[in-house]
Amino acid sequence: MTPDDILPTYERVAKGFARSRDRTLYERRWLDRALGYAPGRRVLDLGCGPGLPIASYLQDRRAEITGVDGAQAMVALFRQNLPHARVLHRDMRGLDLGEEFDLILAWNSLFHLSADDQRAMFPVFAAHARPRSVLVMTTGPEAGEAIGQVEGQQLYHASLSPADYQALLEGQGFEVLAFTPEDPDCNGHSVWMARYLGVT
């Protein structure tokens, strides 16, 4: 199991994933905080999956959503679930939309990339941010690799150290607003929130 297996796996399990995906919206507190900090309502959702529950929740709060997913099956489900949102079949790695957003999400997506590909995402985040844009991402609580499961299929996960993530964020002009490893109020997710100040 390697990072290259992630997109083919999600292509195979997209419908089952969408059916079983937790919709209790345990992410709500982080999403509400992010909307409170963000300068507007343009949202870039990287690794958007089927759009439920996160993108749907944000759209209900007047956000203008652009979803991006590398699995065509996920894009098709997103389009069905949020017909009035924009969704693009693109790999988040090296993404260059030529647009800026108020809120950038990499929820349960960044950690499927290899360590080197994760490092390369931080300029991508910055390229799609405007002053005071907010970035929310989930990582592991510490450096390492792990194999999880979805719909009976193995899934690769990797994480850098918190110190590495902080340095990468600051190096691209982001100010860390919060980091909660294994947040007990967010189903054990390790969540970062940062604000873009620009590179000085």
From TrEMBL:
Pfam families: Methyltransf_25. Signal peptide: none annotated. Keywords: Methyltransferase, Transferase. InterPro entries: Methyltransf_25 (IPR041698), SAM-dependent_MTases_sf (IPR029063). It comes from the Bacteria. The keyword Transport does not apply. One of its GO terms (biological process) is methylation. This is Class I SAM-dependent methyltransferase. It comes from Maritimibacter fusiformis. The lineage of its organism: Bacteria, Pseudomonadati, Pseudomonadota, Alphaproteobacteria, Rhodobacterales.
